[in-house]
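Quick one, tokens below:
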């Protein structure tokens, strides 16, 4: 593997490992799956094929970012509507 590609592959692995800390099924589950995916392609030496795999990994990073964003958005939305519902029912607010 050429040095620039090697650096990109290592950086991709590190980025995915970092993003996997908040994976819904747990960081250990994500790390095992990530490690097995990288080990499966360990013997790929064609630069074009490595580039294709790196691009696929970058797409996974985008998907994980979207998944985390949607999860955060749904939590915020739930909190907002809970507060709005409590306000409509006058629960938890002092009355005059």
């Amino acid at each position: 593997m050429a040095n620039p590609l090697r650096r990109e592959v290592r950086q991709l692995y590190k980025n995915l490992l970092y993003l996997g800390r908040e994976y819904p099924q747990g960081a250990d589950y994500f790390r095992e799956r990530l490690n097995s995916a990288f080990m499966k392609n360990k013997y790929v030496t064609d630069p074009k094929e490595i580039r294709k795999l790196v691009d696929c990994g970058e797409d996974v990073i985008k998907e994980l970012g979207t998944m985390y964003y949607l999860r955060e958005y749904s939590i915020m939305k739930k909190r907002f509507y809970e507060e709005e519902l409590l306000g409509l029912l006058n629960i938890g607010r002092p009355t005059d």
